[in-house]
Structures are given as structure tokens and as C-alpha cells.
Design a protein that fits this description.
Four Helix Bundle (Hemerythrin (Met), subunit A); globular; 5 strands; 5-stranded antiparallel β-sheet; single chain; 18% strand; alpha+beta; 2 domains; 5 helices
């Protein structure tokens, strides 16, 4: 294995061909996904038609710098390493329901120690809990997600994305004997979907209310 293999076989989906900044966490203050771009260096491997990126990001919360090394694999998946590495997930924003926050922490901590079955199970459970807080109707997760979309609570891209995340269609709470384990890519995909769902349902409305309060 070499650094040129980064992103091959597992990683995060990139929808614009760039680093998914939403997944980067500030190692200083713990803020997620709120970064400005400072600089980028690249190194190309002509033989493999691949580019490695060395980015420097600025946290919009605390102003500290984070270095991110990343690359995109042939399947379009992105993997990255960052310095400083973020601290272990230990809490959640106060504007989230406590039970949702507990599930989120367990999903994230499971990812951090490579317990992918547990990560997928807790993230999937957290997704369903968020949907039920919104009184979503349906016989399964997909139907509940589509119900929120029909009511205008989720944008169409979230509905489309849900059908691409395989773990949202699997019920790990009722395992089948001999079933294969959850892959790193599948676990990360459902945790990534959960984080974006939390942002849309809880974070954005909270930030808007804070903005209105400052203006008032």
C-alpha cells in the first residue's frame, strides 16, 4: 500500500469532485464542516492519472488552521487525513434532542474505533428517531424520508441520497445468520447521511433563529 492508493475501495462520496469539507472537524474547537479555504498544493501521478491534495483550511469558529491530505479513488470515493486530528466525539449541540445526541455520539465513536456494524446500527437508529420526532409516516425508513420530503422538510437531494446509502435499506437490528459485516464505506455513508439530516432538521433552523435574534 502507498499514499497513491488513498480512496481506492473505501471512502466518502464527493458530489462535486472536491474535498467534502462537511466531514472535516476542527481539532481545536470541535466545529464540524465550517471552514474557509486558505491554500492547496497538489502532486500528480501521470501513470495513474491521480492527484494528491494538500489543503490548508481555516476554521470559521475559532480561526485555527487544519491541514488535510486527501485523494479521490477511481470509483469517485474520497479519503482524507487531517492534522490536528479531531478529539473524540463526546457531546452534541444543545439544540438536538438528548436521545438523538446519544445515538450520534455512539455512531461517531464506533466509526472512530472501526466498529462498523455498531456505527451503522446506531446511525440508522438515530435517523429513524429524527424522522419520528418530525412525525414522519411510512412503513420503513425510505417511506418516512419521502414523507418529510413531500412535506417540504427535506430537499429532493436528501431523498435521492437516501436511496444511495445501502445501510438505510438494511435492518441491522434483526441480523440474518451468516450475513457479511458492514463495510467501512457503508458505515461512513450512513453516518454522513445522519450528520446532514441533523444539519437540515436542527442546525440550520437554529442558526437562522440565532441570526434573527442578533438582528433584533
Amino acid at each position: 500500500m502507498s499514499w497513491w492508493d488513498i480512496g481506492e475501495g473505501s471512502g466518502y462520496r464527493s458530489y462535486n469532485g472536491d474535498l467534502p469539507v462537511d466531514l472535516v472537524t476542527c481539532g481545536f474547537c470541535g466545529e464540524e464542516g465550517r471552514f474557509g479555504f486558505k491554500s492547496r498544493l497538489t502532486k500528480k501521478n501521470a501513470a495513474e492519472s491521480k492527484t494528491l491534495h494538500y489543503d490548508v483550511l481555516v476554521c470559521e469558529q475559532c480561526g485555527n488552521l487544519t491541514s488535510v491530505f486527501w485523494g479521490m479513488g477511481s470509483s469517485g470515493l474520497v479519503r482524507f487525513h487531517q492534522v490536528p486530528w479531531p478529539r473524540k466525539t463526546t457531546g452534541w449541540p444543545k439544540h438536538w434532542p438528548d436521545d438523538v445526541g446519544r445515538y450520534w455520539v455512539q455512531a461517531k465513536r464506533s466509526i472512530e474505533v472501526s466498529n462498523y456494524d455498531a456505527a451503522a446500527l446506531m446511525a440508522r437508529s438515530a435517523v429513524q428517531l429524527v424522522l419520528r420526532y418530525q412525525n414522519a409516516s411510512g412503513k420503513n425508513l425510505f417511506q418516512e424520508i419521502e414523507d418529510l420530503g413531500a412535506r417540504g422538510l427535506l430537499p429532493p437531494v436528501m431523498i435521492e441520497w437516501a436511496h444511495e446509502v445501502r445501510e438505510l435499506g438494511n435492518d441491522n437490528a434483526h441480523p440474518i445468520p451468516g450475513a457479511s459485516g458492514t463495510t467501512s464505506a457503508d458505515a461512513q455513508a450512513v453516518v454522513e447521511y445522519l450528520r446532514m439530516l441533523l444539519k437540515v432538521i436542527y442546525d440550520l433552523p437554529h442558526q437562522i433563529e440565532e441570526h434573527r435574534g442578533r438582528k433584533a
